[in-house]
Amino acid sequence: MVELGSAKTILLLALGVVGIAYVAVLLLGIKRRRAERPDVPTAPTAGGVATGFVTNFFDTLGIGSYAPTTSIFRAWKMVPDEQIPGTLNVGHTLPTIIQAIIFTRAVPVEATTLIVLIASASLGAWLGAGFVSSWSRRTVQLGMGFALLGAASLLLLNLFKLVPAGGEALGLSGGTLVFAAVANFGLGALMTIGIGLYGPCLILVSMLGMSPITAFPIMMGSCAFLMPVASVRFIRENRFNVRAALGLLIGGIPAVLIAAFIVKSLDVTVVRWLVVVVVLYTAFGLLRTAFKERNTARPVTA
What we know:
The protein has helices spanning about 5-35, 45-60, 65-75, 85-105, 110-130, 135-160, 175-190, 200-205, 215-235, 240-265, 270-295.
């Protein structure tokens, strides 16, 4: 077993290095975009910054940011559907790294479990982003639509308390750890199409007998490493909206700090119900648009 203190120190240093490297890659990607399309504005809008603040505030409290952000993007027509997965990953990365640093320091979890689950999720994201970055607009719509239906289902399971409450374990071993690693690999891959990892990860660790509080460093640490990995591919393929991504980043960082250090806890049951309704509406909207565009594109025969 890896010693907890040294493992956390290594993880925190790695998060810092990843964050700095990610900023460099993002700046280069934005510079390239400006050179290729000087006529397209890249400065974030007030709406984008507000979206980043609200979604990352509740993300820090455990609700997740991907599904609400997707709903806002579509409702206000801020981002084309085919650019939403990349924009989510690129824009939410730095706020998530800050969350991971805060919760890795504060919450106890067995080091080997933490490292294995983070590594498996990151590998899943790298492979998943390779597929999603090459998807057509309609495939992205279908993928996000079904992913959001899954996210809404998980939220409902939590609201109706139909998932295990969890145990007291701080780590896993043997076959159970292998199973968790495989599951987190799949969750990392799914994040690249817009289904957040927080809810599924919380259910996963609870089902395996771990304390639900251990899900916070696991899920935030997983996202903090997998999102830069996925984002590099989206940036390289130019499959993200610069203005919206910068808005999420700029609004998200102060929101995380306020939620983590000032608010700390909040009864968010009403917010979760609202998110379920909005996410379901968005999911059906994406699927309706995908099928409508397929029918429109179908050639007319005599």
